Amino acid sequence: MVGLSPREDRPSWGVARYLQAQGFRVIPVNPTHAGDSILGETVHARLSDIPADAGVEMVDIFRRSDAVAAIVDEALAQLPGLRVIWTQLGVRDDDAARRARAQGVTVIQDRCPKIEFPRHL
């Protein structure tokens, strides 16, 4: 999760905790807190800092829309097992989404897995 906050009152923390409760491993990416721990996982400064054997399949972006393009480009270049990119409520970049889709990655924009997953489980 890019932009995961260590603060329990932040939406990103609540979504990460929900995903963990559903059995997902959530790897935090937040340069301000790199090296710290959030929800029992070591925080990385960038997606490219995540060990290759972590098997990242989904990137959930909790950043502003103007940050999405660079995150998507890094994810496409650094995460060979990437299958899904989510951008949170109010966050979208249609050009970045097209680039990801062109590489076979599913892109869900302006949605939250904490809201959407219960609808489909």
UniProtKB/TrEMBL annotation:
Domain of life: Bacteria
InterPro entries: CoA-bd (IPR003781), NAD(P)-bd_dom_sf (IPR036291)
PANTHER family tied to this protein: COA-BINDING DOMAIN-CONTAINING PROTEIN, CYTOPLASMIC PROTEIN-RELATED
Membrane spanning stretches: none
Gene3D superfamilies: NAD(P)-binding Rossmann-like Domain (3.40.50.720)
Biological source species: Paracoccus spongiarum
Protein name: CoA-binding protein
Residue ranges annotated for the CoA-binding domain, each copy included: 1-91
